[in-house]
Write a structure and sequence with these properties.
Layout (H helix, E strand, L loop, with lengths): L2 H4 L3 H8 L2 E4 L3 H10 L1 E6 L5 H12 L3 E9 L3 E4 L2 E4 L3 E8 L5 E2 L5 E2 L1
Antiparallel strand pairs: 1-2, 2-6, 3-6, 4-5, 7-8
Length: 111
Amino acid sequence: MSESAKTLGVGRQQRLMQVLLGPAISEKSTMVGDKHNQVVFRVDRTATKGDVKAAVELMFKVEVDGVQVLNVKGKEKRTGRFIGRRNSWKKAYVRLKAGQEINFAEGGEAK
């Protein structure tokens, strides 16, 4: 775990606990996880790469090698003549260092 995650204030820790919204589980995220040792998360729209890295290190007690974030645009949906739009969201690809693993099937404990 990095030094910055160990010496956080209480307010900063509370903010980091709200950054990760949950894992984004799909065929693509499973393939990326197996091939590149990455985990995909849905994150808060205001979160930065540093926030995501610190949050993963704090919550799962693993070492993060890198983070890539991207904005996913909400789809336009239509019912009859009414057009609406789903909310946009942010996704983060978190690369773990060699030997690190997060297993969501066993309660999210790091190995």
